[in-house]
Amino acid sequence: MSAFILKISAESQVCERLSVDTLSRSTICTLLSTDVTQRLRVPVSPPFLSDSNRVLCYLIDARGGDKGLPPNLCGTCLYHTGCPIYGDLIFVLCEQDESEEAVFGLSRTQADTLAAWLSEQFPFLHSDICSN
Fold it and tell me: H/E/C letters for each residue in the chain?
C-alpha cells in the first residue's frame, strides 16, 4: 500500500503530493538530493492529527545552507527562530519520542488535508493537490 508525502520546493514554493512505496532514509535522501537529512518537528499540530500518537515533522537537507540552496520560506516560518531553512522539505509523520528515527507516510486524505492546512497557514504556497 502506497503512502504519501508532501514536498515543498524552495525555489517555487510549490506543494507537491508524492506517492511512495517505501519510505526509507534512502528514499528521503534521494528526494532531497542529499546524503544527510535533519528532522524538525512542526510546532503546531494540525487538527487532523489530534487523535494520532504521531507528530508532524519535516525533513530537510542538513547541509542545505552550506550547499547554497535557496531558502525555503515555509520551512523558515515553521522553524520559529528567524534562522532560514534551505532547500526543499518533505513532510512526514514521526513518533512523539524524538529518539525514534522511523518516519511514516500520510494517507491520501491526510496528505490532502495537510496541503489545505498549509495553504491556509502560508498563502504564498502554490498547490493544486486538493483539486486532483
Answer: CCEEEEEECCCCCEEEEEEECCCCHHHHHHHHCCCCEEEEECCCCCHHHCCCCEEEEEEEECCCCCCCCCECHHHHHHHCCCCCCECCEEEEEEECCCCCCCEECECHHHHHHHHHHHHHHCCCCECCHHHC
How many beta carbons lie within 10 A of that of residue 24, not counting itself? 12
C-alpha cell at 46: 494540525
Q: Model confidence over 100-116: pLDDT tens digits?
A: 888 999 999 999 999 99
Q: What is the pLDDT of residues 63-96, one digit of tens each?
A: 999 999 999 999 999 998 889 999 999 999 998 8
Let me know if 76 is exposed, middle or buried by CB neighbors in 10 A (0-12, 13-18, 19+).
middle
The pTM of the full predicted model, rounded to 2 decimals, is 0.91
